[in-house]
Amino acid sequence: MFFYPDMDKVFCDVCSRLKQNGKFIFSTFTENAFQPYSKIFLDMLEENYSIKPPSRIEKRQLTNEDEINEISSQVKYKDLKINYVGIKFPMSVDEWWKLLNSTGYSGLLSQLGDRYNDFEKMYNGHLKSISDGENIDYNADSYISIVTM
């Protein structure tokens, strides 16, 4: 859901198309997902290269149960189930770097131009210094929510 620029509109539109007892199942990441490595990434880009992510237009990010309840309150539903799913596993620093390059962060990385390799070395070096040397504790904790109409 958080990928849509107007989550509220999409949520209401999908729900309005469901038949009686139809279900809308969506997932969102928790506020702790990808932390602390994502924050370190953004802080290092800003502090060392003056590159900041664009301001988030959408005030709601659906990273907690209150926000999921809030968006769901816009429709008349029969049932809402919010399930927390803990997703954690070791991931190499190199795998994390590849992941960053294949997500929305790739736009920020592209702004580095010829400074890309320097940033990669600095960032990955920092992660290796706070990890076991090779792996970080990857966190993709999520909520799977089921709205029954």
Structure at a glance:
The protein has 149 residues and is α+β, with helices and mostly antiparallel strands. Helices cover 40% and strands 21% of the residues.
Question: How would you characterize the overall build of this protein?
Answer:
The protein is of the alpha+beta class. It has 6 helices and 5 strands; from the N terminus they run H-E-H-H-E-E-H-H-H-E-E. Strands 1-5-2 form a 3-stranded antiparallel β-sheet, covered by helices on one side. Strands 3-4 form a two-stranded antiparallel sheet.
Element layout with pairings:
Blueprint: H1 7-16, E1 23-29, H2 37-49, H3 65-72, E2 79-85, E3 88-92, H4 93-101, H5 106-110, H6 116-130, E4 135-139, E5 142-148
Antiparallel strand pairs: 1-5, 2-5, 3-4
Distance between the termini: 18 Å
Strand content: 15-25%
- Which stretches are poorly predicted, pLDDT < 50 over at least 5 residues? none
- Helix and strand composition category: alpha+beta
Tally of individual helices: 6
Let me know the average pLDDT. 93
